[in-house]
Design a protein that fits this description.
Blueprint: E1 6-7, H1 19-29, H2 34-41, H3 45-52, E2 57-58, H4 60-69, H5 74-77, E3 96-99, E4 102-106, E5 114-121, E6 136-143, E7 146-150, E8 153-157, E9 162-166, E10 171-175, E11 181-188
Antiparallel strand pairs: 1-2, 3-4, 4-5, 5-11, 6-9, 6-11, 7-8, 7-10
Helix pairs in contact: 2-3
C-alpha cells in the first residue's frame, strides 16, 4: 500500500494543533496497538508515532484515512464539535479548512455513519497519491474536470458526472483542469470498530 503523504514539519496550523493528542486517545479507545493502527491506515508505526506526538502534520487524505479507521470524522479529529445534532448545515456555517493542498468544507453532520465534504482539488495537488482502504466513496463533480483512477482504469469526469466505488479498489483523485476541480465527496466511516478488521489477537489488546 502506498503510504499517504503528510504536511511539512514545523509550526502546525491552528486547526491541526489538537490532532496529535486525539489520535493517540482514539487509537487506544479502539484497542489498537501502534503497529496495528499504522497497518490499517497504510503508514509505518514510526510515522504514526510522529503524528501522535505532533512532530508531523497529516494531510487531508491522511486525516480521512485516520477518521475511517477510528470510526469518526475529520471534524472530530480537529476538535470541531457541534452543540447539537442539527440536520441542516447552513452555507454560512461551513468554514474552509486546508490540508495537503486541498481545501475542504464539512457539509454533513457530526456523529454519522458517513462524512460529506465539499472539496477543491488544485491541479497537481497529490496527483500521484494512491489510496486503498475499507469503505465506499461517492463523488460528484461541481466544477472543472476530474481525473479518477480506479485500479488500471482512468476516467475523466466533467461537471455533473458522479462516481460511486468500493474504497478497497486502489484509487487516485486528481484535477484535470488548470483551475482545479470542485467536488461533493461522501465517504463511509468504520462504525463497527477498527479492531474487527484486524487479524490476530494483538488487534484486541489495548494500545500502548
Amino acid at each position: 500500500m502506498t503510504e499517504l503523504p503528510d504536511e511539512p514539519s514545523g509550526a502546525p496550523p491552528e486547526e491541526l494543533s489538537t490532532v496529535a493528542p486525539r489520535l493517540r486517545d482514539l487509537r487506544r479507545r479502539n484497542g489498537l496497538t501502534l503497529e496495528t493502527a499504522a497497518r490499517l491506515v497504510g503508514l509505518s508505526a514510526a510515522h504514526l508515532s510522529r503524528l501522535e506526538t505532533g512532530r508531523r502534520q497529516p494531510s487531508l487524505p491522511m486525516l480521512l484515512a485516520l477518521a475511517r479507521t477510528y470510526g469518526t470524522t475529520v471534524s472530530d479529529l480537529l476538535g470541531e464539535t457541534a452543540p447539537e445534532r442539527d440536520p441542516i448545515v447552513r452555507a454560512g456555517r461551513a468554514e474552509a479548512s486546508r490540508a495537503g493542498g486541498w481545501t475542504y468544507w464539512t457539509v454533513g453532520g457530526a456523529g454519522r455513519a458517513m462524512q460529506a465534504l465539499r472539496v477543491h482539488v488544485p491541479q497537481r495537488a497529490q496527483g500521484e497519491l494512491v489510496r486503498v482502504h475499507p469503505g465506499e466513496e461517492w463523488l460528484y463533480v461541481l466544477d472543472g474536470r476530474l481525473r479518477l483512477t480506479l485500479g488500471a482504469a482512468v476516467h475523466v469526469l466533467d461537471p455533473g458526472d458522479a462516481a460511486h466505488f468500493d474504497s478497497l479498489t486502489p484509487h487516485r483523485i486528481a484535477a484535470a483542469a488548470p483551475g482545479g476541480t470542485e467536488l461533493l465527496f461522501v465517504h463511509t466511516l468504520l462504525q463497527s470498530g477498527a479492531a474487527d478488521l484486524c487479524l490476530g489477537d494483538d488487534a484486541r489488546r489495548r494500545g500502548r
